[in-house]
Write a structure and sequence with these properties.
By secondary structure, this protein is mainly beta. It is about 0% helix and about 50% strand. It has a single domain, classed as TM1070-like (Hypothetical Protein Tm1070, Chain: A). Strands 1, 2, 3, 4, 5, 6 and 7 form a 7-stranded antiparallel beta sheet that branches. InterPro entries: ASRT, TM1070-like_sf. It holds the Pfam family ASRT.
């Protein structure tokens, strides 16, 4: 795509991964996901920073979204530089070297009646 859509910096102010869930795994594991769309002709190299209420940010977690593809990144699966703790409030900032679109989704399966919500991440529109 000659004019890729999106922005290079995104923020998700909400984050919380419950320590347990109900239902079969991995489909019903409680999780947080950043859904990233890369419409450009170049791979998007992401740097993810995690912010906590009581300590310095952790990161960057490195991810790649191939050109003209989408990737759903479960925060539960982030391991390097360290796994995200469960039952802990956090927020995230995602930086990309090409414009992308980021949507945030949470599945909370602590009850048999699952809750799923999703929202577009915040961007200030700048580079």
């Amino acid at each position: 795509m000659n004019n890729p859509i999106g922005h290079k910096v995104w923020a998700i102010a909400e984050g919380y991964i419950p320590s347990y869930g109900t239902g079969p795994e991995p489909e019903f594991t409680s999780h947080e996901t950043a859904c990233v769309l890369n419409t450009s002709d170049q791979d998007a190299h992401l740097r993810i920073w995690i912010y906590y209420a009581d300590r310095d940010p952790v990161g960057p977690y490195m991810e790649t979204v191939p050109a003209r593809r989408t990737k759903h990144i479960r925060f539960n699966d982030l391991r390097d530089p360290e796994p995200l703790p469960r039952d802990t409030d956090y927020a995230s900032v995602i930086e990309s070297d090409v414009p992308v679109v980021v949507q945030h989704t949470r599945l909370d399966s602590r009850q048999a009646e699952n809750a799923l919500f999703s929202t577009i991440a915040y961007t200030n529109g700048g580079a």
